[in-house]
Amino acid sequence: MIGLATSREFPDLVGGEQLLYQELRRRGECRIVFWDDPQESWRECDQIIIRTTWDYFVRVIEFLQWIDKVEAAGIKLHNPPDIVRWNSDKLYMRDLSAKGVLIPETTWIARGKLTRDVLRKHVNCPCVLKPTVSGGAYSTFRVSPDNIDAVVEKLDGLAEEKGFMLQPFIPEIVSPGEYSLIFFREKFSHAVLKTPAEGDFRVQSKHGGVYTRAEVSPDIIEQARMILAAVPFDEELLYARVDGVVRDGKFILMELELIEPYLFLEFGDTAAAVLASRV
User: Fold this and answer.
1) Residue 245 and residue 105: Cα distance in Å, rounded?
2) 250 Cβ partners below 8 Å, 6+ apart?
3) CA 37 vs CA 34, 41, 65, 84: distances in Å
4) Three-state SS for 221?
5) What's the angle, vertex CA 137, arms to CA 164 and CA 127, rounded to 5?
6) Fewer CB within 10 A of the end CB, N or C, for the chain?
């Protein structure tokens, strides 16, 4: 049996993820399981595909303990446990950068080290500040020299719990937008362009972001594929979402989503069926 792992907030999955569930049900036994189920009903599965576990980053220790349990039970996990652990902290971007992947200039701030003085030292232009363990624009702020005090106050002690990353604001996020390139078994499937609401910089739909199907050039697809090739593990990825912007023909990686990315299956003609066939 195949299990699609979700969180309590999304008991029936959401949007295009439901298309995958329907395709897998047509092909055999499939059920939706809660990753934090006290009864651990997920143990009845032979394989588990991580899907809408969109609370993991606020419960990351528990989530990684669950990954350990799944692995110890001999259940095949998608994506593989070592990759999930690595991808759960955005420090993975530093690893990819060391392999030649183009990322925005980034200042890494260790847990407990984010202070007003640190921000005053590094923020000399509009920037974006976010925890290295996060998702969905959780505790993500635009910060500039004139609002440092306000941002530090909004963090409300979070700096003691999490590490942070600081990057210059990337104008391409606003226009033309951020691209998401979707791969199944490292083969390109489809792409989506995400644009934020007027006056915002966050591209998530809950913040007013808009998604449209996008056509991307073979060169951009190949650049995204090379990012996947830089992942420092030999295990194959069932799915991957490569998020980034294009500047002067170069793909700049914003995030590599290998745990529970929304895959925009509704934007690919047969994407759900193709993904189901590759499980």
Assistant:
1) 14
2) 102, 223
3) 5, 7, 13, 19
4) helix
5) 55
6) N
Cis peptide before 147 (omega within 30 of 0): no
Residues of the chain with CATH 3.30.1490.20: 107-169
In angstroms, the CA 233 to CA 235 distance is: 6
- pTM of model > 0.90: yes
pLDDT computed for residue 137 by the predictor: 63
- Cα–Cα distance between 38 and 75 in angstroms, integer? 18
**Domain covering 92-103+172-265 in this structure, CATH number:** 3.30.470.20
Q: Strands, E, within the chain: which ranges?
A: 2-6, 30-34, 47-50, 76-78, 107-109, 127-131, 141-143, 164-168, 178-184, 187-195, 210-214, 239-247, 250-257
What are 71-109's pLDDT values in tens digits? 999 999 999 999 999 999 999 999 999 999 999 999 999
Q: Which amino acid is at 119?
A: L
Tokens of 143: 């910060």
How confident is the model over 221-273, as pLDDT tens digits? 999 999 999 999 999 999 999 999 999 999 999 999 999 999 999 999 899 99
Question: According to the CATH classification, is domain 107-169 in 3.40.50.1820?
Answer: no
| Nearest by Cα to 182 from 103, 250, 268 | 268
Query: Into which CATH architecture does domain 2-78 fall?
Result: 3-Layer(aba) Sandwich (3.40)
